[in-house]
Design brief:
Strand order of the largest sheet: 14-26-25-24-15-22-23
Largest sheet: 7 strands, mixed
Strand content: 15-25%
Helix content: 40-55%
Number of strands: 30
Length: 869
């Protein structure tokens, strides 16, 4: 989306006018105008000159913002341009106008009301000189109008272009007061010339000069408060921009040199000393330190960094000296991407804003029509023109299209900024709105609910064996293996400071085992089935191994010589915050589904531990998208994932959430990015979205309620019923405060605690599940019933052929997935059910597939096929 800066917009009607004009340009597919940031985002295949011409023809100004650039210099220039665009230039100007207006207004009020109502003294030459009094009021009102000439220039310009805005209402109201008062002054002068002092005195009550000036001054007060509050709504974005470092210290020809950040190139080596900001994203070459990443993730605890670890721009090196290589510069850095997400979200429109936009587009012409009708009606029922005009002016100045136009974007901007400060990035306004309406959250298991890499969870020595003996034997044997489970054991051993004893004759044996010799003594390791076939395993240890397997863990048994050493259990461990995050989601009325490629036994064990509502196991990467499609039939779906294989599912879901530590592909496919990579941010994001939606509803209610109540009051509809009428000056004050109220209400979101679950309420429209408590299981059972009912008459329901492969070498769930994927990739194979415990792979065939093809597919993955039946 290409960004443009738009000048001259003052209210929601202006925004609607610009959007309508640009949308008509040939080639434009989408246009979103933001009154809050005075910017416009345009998508499509068009000529930029046509966009600028369309805006100018509508009575406003436009210029393209600096184009995106992946170079450091281009990114720095763009950042500077955006930072400049977000500066609050309006408040200081409005403050000067307000001070000058108040000075002259006070003098005018002294003459018009102070003397007449309370008898405040005036120079003697004013005594009985009503024309002089009128001329002074005219002059003072004219000065205030000149000071606030922007209302008249903008208002009448928009009126002449056929697109009246809020300034048009103010300009018409103030000008009508001034013109009518000037006409009364001429009539007064004529009465004085004719010697009719009583008539001249009567015309004093027809002066509305103070109203003309007061309207402008009060609207300026409201505009200044609104501008100041609007400036605060972009504080989060401006704060992010200020984090961007301006310089970097690079190593060139072995010499350190400080250069501007826009001259740093990808691949260059830079150094960071304690207390300095890291200039760009990179990887540590030398040194170690604690790095404060709170600016990006909101996490206050520093993260330890050493050689090989990645670092991000705008984070702070707290303790050690780091030498790093730049991997991302310019627009590619994490900080720049965050700024781009927040900025783009501000430039997009939430679906809920379309209602207000439609009303704003016709609001001002309707109000002008109501004001004219009001004047005519009051004159027809016998009131004088001055009274009728006062009612019409009140209608003009009390009506507030700005409150309607600001109701949604200010809340979206504040909500998006609050999310950014807490490490939750919403890419669009629509994603912020829709997240809170989710009824189902689907989570990928590996890397989302779990840490994503196997770790040692239990060490159970055999009788008479110490834990150190078991670990030493296992460490020596597994150090030679490349299997993921072996890496878990060796990492644990390294953490315990184990010494590697060199083994000889290492080999991976068929039947889930490893074998080697240590000082002439045989070392064995592997599954319970493999070890129990070599040496006796006690019933007690067998029971413990089975219990570990039931719990979703992989028990590895080790033996030395003819003696069993014990069991080491390995599993992809659950992240500490996962159970609490899932419980929070369930308390919010959300149905939580865990999606995994693991076998059902392991998946159910983890599902029970975490507490999810439903487990869908044995799903291949390309099957995740299908599961999401089926779940969308029951309600709005959020998909949470981190890998490349999650990208299609993230795109298919109503809202895709990517873990920040995940792949770039997943992050690109997602609508929301969780920078901290914590599952607890999922309920926090839903909570923030719901709070933002509530705030928008409050703002829209106030905007509509204010106008529905205020316009009839100003028109005098309640005069006959309750005796209520409204002076134009009070109407102007009410108009000023309405916009200020909307913006202030949106700013309350900054006080919202998005990680506090104490006020969570369940959804009213929760998904309804069957007796099983599962969505897909119930649907599958329904499908099965239908198929069984038609089985006798449908040839397609005939049993498909199956083959069972006896496979050696599978040791864990990772092995199962590898064999399953290899077999199901073959043409003619519809499904493969693999079990490393049974050592089998049962394939369902839709056509003829030879045994040789099946055998080759498995053995190409380094497993051995013993038999096919």
């Amino acid at each position: 989306m290409e960004q443009y800066a738009v000048s001259g917009m003052t209210c929601a009607a202006c925004q609607a006018r610009v959007e309508k004009a640009v949308s008509k340009v040939p080639g434009v597919t989408e246009c979103a105008v933001s009154l809050l940031t005075n910017s416009m985002g345009v998508e499509g295949n068009y000529d930029p000159a046509d966009i600028i011409a369309a805006v100018e023809n509508a009575g406003y100004g436009a210029k393209p913002m600096m184009a995106e650039s992946t170079s450091a210099s281009g990114a720095a220039a763009r950042l500077a341009a955006e930072e400049e665009a977000l500066k609050d230039k309006e408040t200081p100007l409005l403050k000067k106008r307000l001070i000058a207006s108040l000075g002259f207004l006070c003098v005018l009020m002294y003459f018009s009301m102070g003397h007449m109502m309370w008898g405040w003294p005036l120079p003697a030459w004013f005594d009985g000189n009503h024309v002089a009094m009128g001329l002074v009021q005219l002059l003072l009102a004219a000065i205030v109008m000149v000071i606030n000439q922007r209302f008249f220039i903008s208002g009448f310009k928009s009126l002449f272009h056929g697109s009246p805005n809020m300034d048009s209402l103010v300009a018409l109201g103030s000008m009508a007061s001034f013109v009518y008062s000037t006409f009364a002054l001429f009539l007064m002068s004529d009465a004085v010339v004719k010697g009719d002092s009583m008539a001249a005195m009567g015309y004093m009550h027809e002066f509305y000069f103070e109203s003309a000036a007061m309207i402008l001054t009060l609207i300026t007060v409201g505009k200044m408060l609104e501008a100041r509050s609007k400036g605060r709504t972009t504080d989060a974005l401006k704060g992010l921009m200020k984090l961007a470092p301006k310089t970097a210290v690079v190593l060139r020809n072995g010499v350190e040199k400080e250069i501007p950040i826009d001259q740093l190139l990808k691949g260059e080596t830079f150094v960071v000393r304690p207390g300095e900001n890291i200039p760009v994203d990179g990887v540590v070459l030398e040194g170690s330190s604690a790095v404060n990443e709170s600016a990006l993730t909101g996490e206050s605890i520093p993260v330890d960094k050493a050689a090989g670890d990645t670092v991000s721009a705008a984070t702070i090196n707290q303790s050690g000296f780091l030498k790093c290589q730049a991997t991302r510069v310019g627009e590619d850095t994490t900080l720049s991407q965050i700024i781009r997400m927040v900025s783009d979200a501000a430039a997009t429109k939430a679906p809920i804003a379309k209602i207000a936009d439609k009303v704003s587009g016709i609001f001002v012409p309707v109000v002008i029509g109501i004001a004219l009708v009001t004047i005519v009606v009051w004159m027809m029922i016998g009131k004088d023109f001055g009274y009728a005009l006062a009612r019409g002016i009140s209608v003009l100045v009390i009506s507030c299209p700005c409150a309607l136009g600001l109701a949604t974007p200010v809340a979206i901007m504040v909500g998006n900024g609050l999310g950014a400060k807490n490490g939750v990035m919403f890419k669009t306004a629509a994603s912020l709105e829709e997240t809170g309406r989710a009824q189902i959250v689907v989570m990928d298991k590996t890397g989302t609910i779990t840490s994503g890499e196997p770790k040692v969870t239990d060490i159970i020595p055999a009788e008479g064996i110490t834990e150190d003996e078991l670990l030493a034997g296992a460490y020596a044997l597994e150090a030679k293996s490349e299997h993921p489970l072996a890496r878990a054991v060796t990492s644990y051993g390294e953490g315990k400071g184990c010494r590697i004893d060199e083994v000889t004759g290492f080999e991976a044996l068929p039947g889930n085992g490893l074998r080697a010799e240590l000082n002439g003594v045989e070392l064995l390791g592997g599954s319970h089935k493999y070890i129990s076939g070599r040496i006796p395993v006690s019933a007690e240890l067998t029971a413990k191994a089975e219990a570990l397997a039931e719990g979703g863990k992989t028990p590895l048994l080790f033996a030395k010589g003819s003696r069993l050493l014990g069991i080491i259990a390995v599993a992809d461990v659950i992240k500490p915050e996962s159970p609490d995050a899932v419980q929070q989601l369930k308390n919010m009325g959300v149905h939580v589904v865990m999606l995994t490629g693991d076998n059902e036994r392991t998946a159910n064990a983890i599902g029970r531990e975490v507490g999810v509502s439903e487990v869908v196991a044995g799903v291949l990467p390309d099957g995740k998208e299908d599961v999401i499609s089926r779940l969308k039939e029951f309600g709005k779906v959020i998909m949470v994932g981190d890998g490349i294989n999650d990208a299609p599912a993230l795109t298919r879901a109503d809202i895709g959430m990517a873990i920040g530590a995940g792949t770039d592909v997943a992050i690109d496919a997602a609508d929301v990015v969780l920078m901290k990579s914590r599952l607890s941010d999922v309920p926090a994001a839903i909570r923030l979205s719901r709070a933002t939606l509530t705030n928008i509803h409050e703002n829209l209610f106030w905007a509509f309620f204010y106008n529905v109540l205020g316009i009839p009051l100003a028109a005098g509809c309640y005069v006959r019923l309750f005796g209520w009428s409204l002076n134009p000056m009070f109407g102007a004050a009410a108009m000023s405060l309405s916009s200020f109220f909307v913006v202030s209400n949106a700013l309350r979101l900054n006080l919202f605690r998005m990680h506090d679950p104490s006020k969570d309420k369940p959804l009213r429209n929760k998904v309804s599940v069957g007796p099983s408590g599962c969505l897909l299981k119930g649907a599958a059972e329904d499908d099965e019933d239908k198929n069984n009912a038609n089985a006798d008459n449908t040839k397609e329901n005939e049993a498909m052929a199956t083959k069972t492969l006896k496979v050696e070498g599978m040791m864990c769930g990772h092995c199962e997935k590898t064999v399953k994927k290899a077999l199901e990739a073959l043409e003619g194979v519809t499904e493969a059910q693999v079990s490393h415990e049974a050592g089998t792979a049962v394939v369902t065939l839709a056509g003829e597939v030879s045994d040789d093809v099946l055998k080759k597919a498995v053995e190409d993955k380094d497993y051995k096929v013993l038999d096919i039946a």
